[in-house]
Amino acid sequence: MYRLKLPLSTGKVANFSARHPWWVIGVWLVLLVLAGVAAPGLKTGLTGGEMRLLNNPDSVQGQTLLKQKMAGDPTASLGATETVVVHSDAATVDDPQFQQVVQQTTTSLAGKTGLVAQAYDYYQAALFDADAAGALISGDRHTALIVVNLAGTSSQVDDNMEQYLALIKAQGVKGYTIATVGESSIGHEFSSTAENDLKKAELVGLPLTLIVLVLVFGAVLAAGVSLALALVAIFVSVGVISVIGVFVPQSFFIVNMIMMIGLAVGIDYALFIVERYREERRQGLGKIEAITATGATASRAVLFSGGTVILALLGLFLVPITTFRSLGLGALVVVSAAVLAVLTLVPALLSVLGDRVNWPLVRWHRKKHTGERVHSSRTVYKGIWGKFTKGVMARPVVGVALTVVILLAIAAPSLMLKTGAAASPDALPPGDRRTAYELLAENFPPGLLSPVQIVVSGKETPELDQAIKTLQDGLRRSKDFAGSSIVTWNQAKDLALITAPLSIPTDSPEAYQAIRDLRGDLIPSTFAHLDASVHATGQTALDADSVDLVNKFTPAVLAFVLGLTFILLMIVFRSIVVPLNAIIMNLLSVGAAYGMLVLVFQKGIGHRLFGFQQTPTIEAWVPIFLFCILFGLSMDYHVFLLSRIREHYDRTDKSREAVAVGLKATSRIITGAALIMVVVFSTFAAGNLVMLQQVGFGLAVAVLLDATLIRSILVPATMAILGKISWYLPRALKKVLPRVSLEGGRTKPIRPPA
Prior knowledge:
This protein is an alpha+beta fold.
């Protein structure tokens, strides 16, 4: 056995920061200025709602062929397309006024050459092709469609979207609904909604968080230090992501993720450090000594805990999808910034503030603040938490059985979890995009807005033409596809695009299965003996491939996170029982979060009470993202609790007493930290985007259960049952595992405070 030493101890870092506070604060101010310079460029590095699959599946291959062989082809309409919906409850397409409204809208759109390349409506199409015109009106003839091809490249379309939406809004006529919907306008809506949700979270979440911090600390300045730490980590992280975005575009969700995770972990880490500093001062240490002792103990635990979160987040990079890697990167950067700030900036601020950090100490905290002593066998079972701990440990079997049953009951609905793509208009709040989408869904085939694109790459021959007709006949007979498909050849006659709308919702599991059936049966049987490559693409195919890709890599992510967690905890706590116990408990909290997601979002139970939208599926990236984040965050509480238990156990060799001491020493602060996390996550769940509602709600539920049922009941009860077995480590491992102490070398108290 050998002792693993950090290159630079956290105690020495805290001591240096405390002795040179203004140098440290100055460095962080420089970082904030640099972040402020870089931040304005962030928007250019965000990709909107685009999700790219990096393993080159069938859908991506089809998209690549379209860009290579049809992009810029004047005979092919592959530019951004929008569908303008014109609806009247009273008039039909046969009424002169309805015709006038549609034609006037079409003329206005076509006249904006900088925005619109082409616009055509039912009345124009009826002059040339009656069948094609029929596809542009509803069965009851109260709704008509205008097909709009937008001008410019994808980036130009994004830049011009505000003008285009304003142009559509200007067409409003009393008694008529005129709204546009398409991938470009939907992406713009998602981006602007995410931005508005972020502003709401800042306006509502920050004041609520500050109030909770004041209640936990009983002092405004102590609360301010924690909040300042989180905000510094967030601003610096946004600057870092702005620079990275110049080279690698990121999802627009990354800013929301940085804000949410940054507030949660930043405040919690600072909370543990400031509270430990106050405790050390209550034990009689001088200011610098107290900061150094805090650095050698709590800061060391924060370093390990933050490192665990970072390593868990690395699991997201195993999935070759840009959304996973972008959100993982945002969370990873902000957690790293928070840990670095906790190790350096917080000791510097404590050095400057000294005991003023307790100002103003409110009345209900004064007695505890002036009278607290080191927990011992004589005092451990006193007070609210002491009596609660005594009750839990008096009947540990009952506590374990009851808690596990409750958690399993909450987790049971997770067996019905269905994943899919929530990035469709029905995942948006009420508005023009939602209205247009609902009118399309009510009056036209569900797949009209996002049809399946079948790309046939090969020289046009009579045999290939016949095969395409056979494929069209098969699509016509299929219950999954609606109406007739359209074939478009490029100028070189070496690529054909078959556009086929689905008759079922495009973001449903049934639609994904239709894509799999198309690829696995109809396409191979039709083109088996021809010299052509055929690919099914389009948004539905991309979503199906992403769901399959997530399912494929989920076991690898689970194995990576669980295995890494086990190894790290085994090394730090020198036990194989503690990490097994921690993994089981974390799985229970994650399972409970999944179960609540299914109940509220899929089944719609209580969704109106929370202000959420009901969806048939959970966004594909949410479950695995929650798993990685929660396994990292739950380690915070577990590490802080177990480190205090182990500290007392090493001094006394009394297992039950160590559990009681650790629980009493950390329960109040862990409960406060969990409450802060719940407030932060709930604020983001109160936004309008379904996927962020799912993430925020899932995180809030899991943290709440983790800090109450698991940390307060299940952990002490199981450790009381196991006793010294909790610290069992095989003799062979004792010889090879390094010894890592989270609590470092603690400075002895000088004297009781005056």
